[in-house]
């Protein structure tokens, strides 16, 4: 990654813990501007906790997160919310809230006492619902939605926030194959056409390899390796991080590495 662009986010010597249990220990990670970074690793390795720390929802024991060279602790909540959007793994909202009401919550960081709802807010909400295919569901209460429909509504809320950086924690976890592709192609389009910096947590290594510019293996509290998918997706690398023997082929359509796990190490 020597030729990578300047980092939009810099994680420096970040130590994160739950009580006395350290999850990430003095972790360093540059997240390049205008690229898609995918975090991958075993369950419990700290990927989701790292995303929360980037959005300042998990206070570090030590270390810093910099956004455009500025420590995020210097920004107020709404200012940070206008620059970094996060969809956590298990978000919640009142079940009688409609889809449109949920998506409108994404505009909260843009609201102020003397700044009422504007045509720009309407346009952002409409574009987010159109991009995720939930316009027809706009008046449905979220409690009536399927898991996949609900996930798309939550993604629309984050898109309506119109942030420079979008962090998504397992965004395709509840989606069928078609909607997984819809979601990740939407994310890729936001990156490609609008220059958004994207940080994803994905468990599916093949999807990670397909969409990542920078793939990051998190293991035992550290960044085990980071780089292009072609560099990380090796039989040796998969065995070290995931304790699985795997064959690595080349996807004939996208020319990206493709992992076929066949047994535990």
TrEMBL record:
Residues 9-245 form the ABC transporter domain. It comes from the Bacteria. Pfam families: ABC_tran. Gene3D superfamilies: P-loop containing nucleotide triphosphate hydrolases. It is a peripheral membrane protein. It is found in: Cell membrane. InterPro entries: AAA+_ATPase, ABC_transporter-like_ATP-bd, ABC_transporter-like_CS, P-loop_NTPase, Siderophore_ABC-ATPase. CDD domains: ABC_Iron-Siderophores_B12_Hemin. The keyword ATP-binding applies. GO terms for molecular function: ATP binding. PROSITE patterns: ABC_TRANSPORTER_1, ABC_TRANSPORTER_2. Keywords: ATP-binding, Cell membrane, Ion transport, Iron, Iron transport, Membrane, Nucleotide-binding, Transport. Belongs to the ABC transporter superfamily. PANTHER family: IRON(3+)-HYDROXAMATE IMPORT ATP-BINDING PROTEIN FHUC. This is ABC transporter ATP-binding protein.
